[in-house]
Design goal:
- The chain crosses the membrane at residues 21-42, 54-74, 81-103, 123-144, 156-185, 205-227, 234-254, 266-288.
- Keywords: Cell membrane, Membrane, Transmembrane, Transmembrane helix, Transport.
- This is Spermidine/putrescine transport system permease protein.
- The protein has 297 residues and is mainly alpha-helical.
- It has helices at residues 3-10, 27-47, 59-63, 67-100, 108-118, 124-134, 139-148, 162-186, 190-198, 203-231, 235-241, 248-256, 264-296.
- α4 (67-100) packs across α8 and α10 (203-231) runs antiparallel to α13.
- The termini are far apart.
Length: 297
């Protein structure tokens, strides 16, 4: 080694480790996810397999298969399926009419704005709105009874029931469907319709053989997302029906609210079961959404 090399080694600047500043921008988001999603989820998963003294047990999971809990899960699944199916059908029809139906273009802006707000409108305000509208002495209920002699109660409609909760869920299910399916409908290329028309296809044939097969992954994926959205809705169900309808979120609330008869660890198990079901639904949505995006590209 020469003297020049020794001098270069002696005067070489020390290496400095620099923290990329652009990562600081997502630091609040990472902290938020960690504190309010990951850590609570881990607490639920761990608590589902613990006794009050902290010992490991499978009794909480086994208790999920009792008839009352299975019935609560089954009612929640049926409500989620019904509201998701109706939300997909109505939302798809509205989005298609606005984008491809020849309606004035100015309608799209207010519709998307309302959908963005309504898709997040839930809980006590939504329950109160429907009680004031379709409740036993609601505005629409009394109007139909006094003006047309139609008694919704005698016809079998009860807002505090399966179909009452399903209709209430539609208030945020339909706007969510509109928000998600609109980009997919926008992705339908005009060339595809023109090619189908040149080959002699009717409008019905185009939708049946070209448009719907392309949109099917998006529709099914959105259905899975709407299912998860309805299955995990807690505040609206509790505020609207209270304990009159036994569904999984209400049963979960009863177990963890701290009453003498409550069992927090059984509540953890109920929440764990809901996480598994909604996780499967979200996984289906992600897979189908990725498949749909490959087609639309």
């Amino acid at each position: 080694m020469t003297k020049a090399d020794d001098g270069a080694r002696l005067y070489r600047a020390p290496l400095r480790t620099r923290l990329p500043l652009h990562w600081l921008g997502i630091l609040p988001f990472v902290l938020f996810i960690l504190l309010f999603l990951i850590l609570p989820t881990m607490k639920i998963v761990i608590g589902a397999f613990q006794r009050p003294d902290g010992a490991f047990t499978l009794d909480n999971i086994a208790n999920l298969f009792t008839p009352s809990i299975l019935n609560a899960y089954w009612i929640s699944i049926k409500i989620s399926v019904a509201s998701s199916l109706l939300g997909c059908l109505i939302g798809f029809g509205v989005a298609t009419a606005v984008i491809l139906g020849g309606l004035p273009k100015w309608i799209r802006g207010p519709l998307m704005t309302f959908s963005g707000v309504a898709s997040n409108f839930a809980g006590v305000p939504l329950a109160f709105a429907f009680l004031a509208t379709l409740g036993p002495v609601g505005l629409v209920t009394m109007f139909l009874k006094t003006e047309f002699g139609i008694n919704l109660r005698l016809l079998g409609f009860n807002l505090l029931s399966f179909w009452g909760l399903t209709i209430t869920y539609l208030f945020f299910q339909i706007p969510l469907m509109i928000l998600i399916i609109t980009p997919a409908i926008d992705g339908l290329k005009r060339e595809w319709r023109e090619a189908a028309s040149i080959l002699g296809a009717t409008t019905g044939q185009y939708w049946r053989m070209v448009a719907l097969p392309i949109l099917t992954p998006s529709i099914l994926g959105t259905f899975a997302l709407l299912f998860a959205n309805a299955f995990g809705a807690v505040a609206t169900a509790i505020a609207l029906t209270g304990s009159s309808l036994s569904i999984a979120p209400i049963l979960l609330f009863a177990q963890i609210r701290g009453d003498v008869l409550g069992d927090p660890h059984l509540g953890y198990a109920l929440a764990f079961g809901m996480i598994v079901i909604t996780g499967i639904a979200n996984a289906v949505y992600i897979v189908l959404r990725a498949r749909s995006e490959r087609w639309l590209k």
